[in-house]
Design a protein that fits this description.
The structure is a single chain. The protein is built from 26 helices and twelve strands. The protein is an alpha+beta fold. Helix 2 crosses helix 3, helix 17 packs across helix 20 and helix 17 packs across helix 22. It is globular, with a radius of gyration of 25 Å. 49% of the residues are buried. The N terminus is likely disordered.
Amino acid sequence: MRLLKLSLLLLAGCASLFAQSNSPQGIQKGDIDQKADPCTDFFQFANGKWRAENPIPPSMVRWSRRWQAGEEAKDQLKVILDDVSSKKDWPGGSSEELISDYYGSCMNESRVNQLGLTPAKPMLAEIDAMKTPADLQRMVRRLHEESVFVPFGLASAPDNHNPGQVIATVFASGLGLPDRDYYLKSEQRFQEAREKYLVHVAAIFKLAGYDDAKAKSAANTVFQMEKKLAEASLDNVALRDPKATDHKTTFADLKKLSPSVDWDGFFTAEKLSRADLNVTEPKFFQEVDRQFRETPLADWKTYLKWQFLHAFADQLSDPFVNENFAFYGRYLNGATELKPRWKRCAEATDQLLGEALGKKYVEKYFSPEAKARAQEMVSNILAAMHDTIEGLEWMSPETKKKALEKLSTFNPKIGYPDKWKDYSSIKMSHDSYWNNNLAAVKWNIDDDHSQIGKAVDRGRWGMTPPTSNAYYNPLLNEIVFPAGILQQPSFSVNNADAINYGGIGVVIGHEISHGFDDQGAQYDAQGRLNNWWTADDLAHFHDRTSCVVRQFDGYFIEPGIHHNGKLVLGESIGDFAGAKIAYLAFKKAAQTHPEPTIDGYTPEQQFFIAWGQWRGDEIRPETQRTMVQGDPHPIGKYRVIGPLSNLPEFKQAFSCKDDAAMVRPPADRCQVW
């Protein structure tokens, strides 16, 4: 979805990776490349030996201990799902019955393959049957009910100016390539991606029964419609600015912006009130309006068929799944084989029924002791951020007061929701994966839309409990850490403090820092998009963030392709500040709980090695290229060496010389917080 993007940090963990122990668990000494100099290339030093001995598996696009742990977490979900599926007499509508039916139907691969295209044929026939503009409007609404957001999307979101209230947000959608630049940029890699995409779209149409000539023509039609939408879309850097996607408007003005869209029919069908809403990209909706007016109905039929098949290819038979993987998995990201069926089914269950599955997950894999320890760490790192803000020399007392007010209103969420979602109204069976998937998709769409027009429910979560991830939401000023990330190797009640603070501690600091990055700093303590800075302090802030931009502009993944510092600015600020304040919290904890040198490494060295071992991903070249183009996160190598090269504490821990590669000269050193 092209909404205001909440900064998410993709992470992973697994409770079973390491055995429990009574003595504090330290770094993975065997992962260290002893031939590498930590002051020259800390990425190679921290886990270079592990990466050399553990190549990226064929189904993965990146690999490290944390990604390995994330995949092993799927093994945990499989244990739960297999156990639940072994029993057939669960109460009707219970969470156990629902996840058993969904997972079981997904695992019935022979039935899915036997059906082939059959489940999709009714919708394809409906699209073919369109005869009038009114039919087109109805079909767009039908596709939205099944989460096919074409050519735009609609979802709930807190109001930027009154974040206690949920409003509708309409956003740009409807592209098959990753973002607008893939349609428009002239570099060879984008030209090649367009050529491959046309072949892929045609291949899907051929699987749907088209002959070669008709499939090729259909692919060209799809591409031309999508290219026009791309031309009217914001690029990834522009989308990072909340003001660029903040266009609160009345329902009447939405109709004036794109009068050819049947907004009345759409809002009636979705049972939405015609209250004020946000339009993320007005120019895009003008192009949507033009296409509704000028694009022939035959072209719309082709485009909608493609978007429908594109959205549900992985729920169809193997030929569709394999073709979808060939383009998106193999070509764009470099994976060489699909994940096994059971793992894809476990991921799908988590995606659509995540709190039903998540409740079982936390019962089995997330202890009260782990939650209490994580809460303690969050409190300590928030305190470190408080001390950091108070000590800033470049910020005036007036702005400091506002920053500390914002920090005091942070709402940490740890592990799982206090109130679980009730999925009991979803009707499922054990023998129809297609119908089960549509039922779950529709329930999630309805659940989201049901929030529009209401006060914000601060108990809701934007991630499922098993998710190996974390996020900061600027509108609610909340930091969220699902149980799935509070696992080894980044966190355990048995880890030495240096490991916990160097692993999950930096993540916690990272998410806190998002409240004060280039996006988060535009939101005040109440979550409003509202400037709380003095002019001088804001200028100082921008000077400091410009340093980060310059540093990451200089990081190349291959000749001619480097990071876009503006695109990765928020995540890099999060990493820089996260490492700093987690280290401060660790050192403060060590005053009352001093830790020993373990395996020859001081506690301070262990802290930094823990970050390098947990964050140090090996990433396929294809994935690096897609990340540099559209991902706000830098690649793992630069997330390790980038922040640490700016920290005097790192230099001191490893006794690095002033001219070492991992020590940026004082004149070039970046520090925002």
